[in-house]
Structure prediction request, 426 residues.
Amino acid sequence: MKNENIKSVPLVVIKRLPRYYRYLGELLKQGVTRISSKDLSEKMGVTASQIRQDLNCFGGFGQQGYGYNIEKLYQEIADILGLNRGYRTIIIGAGNLGHALANHSNFEKRGFKLVGIFDSNSDVVGSKINNLIVSHIDDIETFFENEGADIAILALPKSSVKEVADRLIALNIKGLWNFSYTELDVPDNVAVENVHLSDSLMTLSYKLTELNE
Amino acid sequence: MKNENIKSVPLVVIKRLPRYYRYLGELLKQGVTRISSKDLSEKMGVTASQIRQDLNCFGGFGQQGYGYNIEKLYQEIADILGLNRGYRTIIIGAGNLGHALANHSNFEKRGFKLVGIFDSNSDVVGSKINNLIVSHIDDIETFFENEGADIAILALPKSSVKEVADRLIALNIKGLWNFSYTELDVPDNVAVENVHLSDSLMTLSYKLTELNE
DNA sequence: TAGATTGTTAATCGATTAACAATC
DNA sequence: TAGATTGTTAATCGATTAACAATC
Prediction:
């Protein structure tokens, strides 16, 4: 149940959390135990004010005169992002992109569990990727009856993505990570995050063009 | 030479251009020839005001009482984004992700030319991907002497990306499309666009968590 | 305690939306 | 011409930065 009383945190703040998380993780690895918003701001190239404002959307994680305990802050952000919920994840589409994502060890490290890979191509079905056997997409309903999943990674062609998304929504999927070059229509209770690679490349192209004209 | 007189267009506007481009492309394919900012705004779920403001950062592409000629606007946006400059692109890292990106036909369709693939693993060097033979990364300097490239797609592990990026910068690369989970330090005349997949997945994780608590 | 640094309010800046005169 | 819709200015909204009292 979403709490409608509390003013929800702007998406622009949310999108900065993973970056904080990354920097804190590196500091932690280096054995640093505390940091002030000022020092972190210099490392990250943002203002200290922004860091303090962002974090205070979720609570007072720091201590006056001391700064932030990195270990604690790191855990807090993981908590906010839901990284310790062990979200069960499936990949739809065992092409090159699906393959690449399946082997992306970072995801397991971030607390996501890869529990299934599906494809419609019978040449691929039955093959093994990262210790998982690729299932046929038509077995998805059975899979949800027995095991279920929270997140589906849509790494399949634009032409079939809408049909598959609808099937997953009918199965009560909670989130879609969409790599196909289309926008999806989903009900309010399904989260979507789009990765439009072409858009990103075009943005790069603009920057390039601007720099060189 | 960047024109310092003209106030540069906010990045937030630039990032919306590819999306306009996509919608216009679809309309074009459907045979629609003109559209008003109002109609487009309804299709895209943005305000008509925003569309007009965005486009007017680059010039008056519409016509009072008529709207926008889709074919013309489509070409104008391609022009702004530099999609017709035939940017020469290389992929560094022929793993699953490099493979996936090499086969991503969208890029060629958007006017980018894939002209080389490089890897450091001798098992992969010499193999063929999408009609290109994978070269050893140590041949990159020779490649630039003879052919050169504008954009490098960095699809290689975090551990080696900084060294490779520095080599490419020394070779006068114009743009880096960075898929590695690190931020790169580059001079002002090199454009960078990061694709931090983990960040995107964590954002999805947040949305999911928020919806279900 | 004195110094440091947070949490938070207030000021500024930039982006979005609304409104409308210009004009096709 | 009358109607439609742009280009553009002005108003609003939201996000960022600055400032400082609270407090560890």
Remarks:
- Residues 10, 12-13, 47-50, 53, 63-66 of chain B lie near DNA strand C (CB under 10 Å from a C1').
- Confidence is low (pLDDT under 50) at residues 1-5 of chain B.
- Chain B touches chain A through 59 residues (CB under 8 Å).
- Chain B has ten helices and eleven strands.
